[in-house]
Amino acid sequence: MLAPIKPFAVERDDPIERSRHAASVSRVVLGFFGIVLILERPDVVPLPGAGIAGFAVVVVTALLQLADLRIVWAHVEELFAATAAILVIGVQDQQVNAIDLLWLVAVAAGMMARGGRVGWTGRLIVVGALALPIAREAELSLEYAAFCLAVLALMATAGRLTAELNRLLRQARHDAENAETLLLAGEIASRVIQRDEVAMRSGAAVDLRPASPGPTPLPSEAEVARTRAALGRLIDGDGLRMVVQPIVDLRTGRIHAYEALARFGRRRTDHSPLHWFAVAEELGEREALERACLGAALELFERRPAGARLAVNLSIPALLDPATFEVLDDFAAGRREGLDGLIVEITEETLVGNTCEVLRTADALRERGARLAVDDVGAGYSGLRQIIEVLPDYLKLDRSLVADIDADADRAALVSAIAGYSRQVRSLLVAEGIERPAERRVLESLSVPLAQGFHLAMPGEPWPEVIDGALGDDGPDFAVSGPSRGPAPIDR
């Protein structure tokens, strides 16, 4: 019996908000202290009434900051606070005393409370207030010049420094939230694995013996030559054709993109695409076969429906092969919009050990308008660390996480965690392999935006539409089986 998952406790302790709150409280104290000081020592300033009014403005604006105003009112508060400079500094003489220093500290606290924001209008008001005593007395004392320099230096550096510190704090908090989401996903994934292991130990024994006893005979030289020749014809485009399967936006019901899938030889009679890619791998021609499929997909790309994207699959070795990038670069150079509308899919597990190279290639593709997708997310959990670094535009859930998700709370929890992560990093999440309405409904409830599968649309000749009723059929659940399912989708 597995122990229930303990959710991570999220502590509501925002250092940014706490620092701003403390700065606002400090401004309130400084404002009241300035008022009390002028009341006790009215001879400190030439116009005590103006000084008291100025510090009253400081108190009021600090209280407004504590009210956590919306940005439009925060701008008004900033302008209102700047007018305190006229009352405390502008109408007084050039003698620098405790009142002036209190006001200067209040200005610094105000910048901190605004998160470093110092608008140009507010700065001009303060600079104008500093200039009033100089214009009125037609001279500039040394101590007042030093005071003016201190105020100008504060506005030039303190606001910018506070803004940068707040940016770093926000980034640290965001990274912590992302890490927490992935840790939660890891705990759920671990539980799914443990549960499956328990089921295997308690269920029937799994027969791991080969289907036929004895060693597999090695192919003859003639068979290898025939296979190599057949593969060469496929690489040359003879027998290669492309079908596409829609990727549907569950929020609008519209087709967001199409995934290009390779088919080889005669329909339903020759070996599957998976077979031919395995053969190409054995014969050292995998990248060449993938480039042939890429070329055929790029021909479709030119004819895709308006507004739809086209996804093409590339393995990491093929993606990092200079010859592959040359194909994409030449194609982009011949189009005014470059690769805008193209999605390049790579698998999660192949990211491991190739992150730096993938990052450089991904940046080059993005410069040309392409988007990057990571396929089979969840099939290899070790790749999640690389996903954090690459930050793809799309995350495609592995079919194993989607199958029977309506009857599996653990899978639903894992998909929910990945969906939350994808929203945090602004990646679009795609659920692959939806075969039943119940699976679609659960994914919709988990706010998964994009989906793909036999329930929505079968792979077919360009360009298939969404099956009628696939997005609104809430009738009894059913499993798609038998010949009507068509060929299994191959990630090519």
Question: Describe it for me?
Answer:
The chain has 492 residues and is α/β, with parallel strands linked by helices. The chain is 54% helix and 10% strand. Helix 14 (384-390) links the parallel strand 5 (371-377) and strand 6 (394-397). Helix 1 (15-40) runs antiparallel to helix 5 (98-113). The longest helix is centred in the middle third of the chain and has 61 residues, at 142-202.
Topology, element by element:
Elements: H1 15-40, H2 48-66, H3 71-82, H4 84-90, H5 98-113, H6 120-137, H7 142-202, H8 221-235, E1 240-249, E2 255-264, H9 273-282, H10 286-301, E3 309-313, H11 316-320, H12 322-333, E4 342-347, H13 355-367, E5 371-377, H14 384-390, E6 394-397, H15 399-402, H16 409-424, E7 428-431, H17 437-445, E8 450-451
Parallel strand pairs: 2-3, 3-4, 4-5, 5-6, 6-7, 7-8
Antiparallel strand pairs: 1-2, 1-8
Helix pairs in contact: 1-2, 1-5, 2-3, 2-4, 2-5, 3-6, 4-6, 5-7, 7-16, 9-10, 10-12
The SSE order reads HHHHHHHHEEHHEHHEHEHEHHEHE
Count of β-strands: 8
- Counting structural domains, the number is 2
Mean pLDDT: 77
> How would you name the CATH homologous superfamily of the largest domain?
EAL domain
| Beta-strand content estimate | 5-15%
Task: List segments where confidence is low: pLDDT < 50 over at least 5 consecutive residues.
Answer: 1-13, 204-213, 474-492
Helical region count?
17
Using only CA atoms, what is the Rg? 33 Å
Largest sheet: 8 strands, mixed, barrel
Distance between the termini: 40 Å
Helix content range: 40-55%
The level-1 CATH class of the largest domain = Alpha Beta
Q: Please name the CATH topology of the largest domain.
A: TIM Barrel
Q: Helix/strand-derived class? A: alpha/beta
